[in-house]
Write a structure and sequence with these properties.
Blueprint: E1 2-3, H1 20-26, H2 30-42, E2 50-52, E3 55-58, E4 62-64, E5 70-77, E6 83-90, E7 92-94, E8 100-102, E9 117-120, E10 123-126, E11 131-138, E12 147-157, E13 185-194, E14 199-211, E15 215-226, E16 230-240, E17 246-256, E18 262-268, E19 280-289, E20 294-304
Parallel strand pairs: 4-13
Antiparallel strand pairs: 1-13, 2-3, 3-5, 5-11, 6-10, 6-12, 7-8, 9-11, 12-13, 14-15, 15-18, 16-17, 16-19, 19-20
């Protein structure tokens, strides 16, 4: 979950191709490591990263499963001023519309990951364009149940936003003054999976809704079963009666966490101008991915007339 302030500009699409050998070489020395992070900061939004305010984080999601016990998070200050960030854990519930609410105690079917995680450091000061590595360690305990544990790692800006010259200003005690100081922060999910895990997903309730009279959206429901969450991408393909099929909609990074069994999703359909979605069908594909491969959760079709 990310909390934004201000507008976000969509970057141009670019591609970087680094082999495992390239990454190993870049990390061999301190100087090479700095060059590696400089490359990340310059091409920030073109990697698997998120940025809010002036903070860039890679990766955007961490899953501990199998024998994995450690993960490194790469932070980069992309701004022009020195910034301070405190790092802590927050707990969230997902609603069926995809929004989050902060909670203190877990709901039914939900377990927190925080008690089994260690972070170092918990507070960083970053100069402009300076990188920093945060170490995240999973400590397995014998009493852990099979299933999924989840908490969210929260990065809170503690930058000094005091306006210049404020200390020298004369205080007028006859007037009431209000000063609003924005606090920036973002969070990424940290997931632990242990023991015997099961999961399955299906799609239903497919329905096209026209908004503003001309813009079509595909509404659908993702259904989840099992003791872990699902997370992946949704693609929508239009298959006309005559002619070639083509993709008309995508939605990236769609998850259904363990505190809910279904999530309602709406996808904007980008049809070709001057055409209508008639006399054919839509094929909707929900796929997940891990470090080695992409796999299919569910596929569903609907006719359009």
């Amino acid at each position: 979950m990310m909390m934004f302030a201000g507008n976000v500009t969509k970057p141009k699409k670019m591609y970087i191709c680094l082999t495992e050998r390239d990454v190993t070489f870049l990390k061999k020395s301190t100087m090479q490591r700095k060059l590696f992070f400089l490359l990340i900061s310059i091409l920030a939004f073109n990697l698997q990263s998120i940025a809010q305010g002036d903070l860039l984080i890679t990766p955007t999601r961490v899953v501990f499963e199998g024998y994995k016990q450690k993960e490194e998070l790469n932070l980069v200050n992309t701004g022009n001023d020195t910034a301070i960030y405190s790092i802590s854990f927050l707990q969230y519930n997902m609603k069926e519309d995809g929004n989050f609410t902060q909670i203190e105690t877990p709901d039914s079917g939900q377990m927190f990951a925080e008690p089994y995680l260690r972070i170092f450091p918990r507070r960083v000061t970053l100069a402009p364009r300076e990188p920093q590595v945060i170490s995240l360690q999973f400590r397995r305990k014998p009493e852990m149940q099979s299933g999924e544990y989840r908490s969210h790692l929260y990065f809170r800006a503690e930058k000094d936003n005091k306006p210049l010259g404020l200390d020298k200003a004369t205080v007028d005690t006859t007037q009431l003054k209000v000063q609003l100081i924005p606090i920036f922060g973002l969070s990424i999910p940290i997931i632990i999976r242990t023991g015997t895990i099961t999961v399955a997903a299906s799609l239903n309730n497919l329905k096209i809704e026209n908004r503003q009279d001309t813009i079509p959206y595909l509404n659908l429901t993702i259904n989840r079963t099992g003791n872990i969450s699902v997370y992946g991408d949704i693609s929508v393909e239009y298959i006309p009666v005559e002619g070639k099929s083509y993709e008309i909609g995508t939605l990236k990074g769609v998850g259904v966490y363990t505190n809910i069994n279904k999530r309602n999703v709406s996808i904007k359909l980008n049809k070709t101008p001057g055409t209508t979605l008639k006399n054919g069908k839509l094929k909707v594909l929900y796929t997940g991915f891990n470090e080695t491969k992409r796999f299919k959760y569910s596929e569903e079709e609907m006719e359009v007339k």
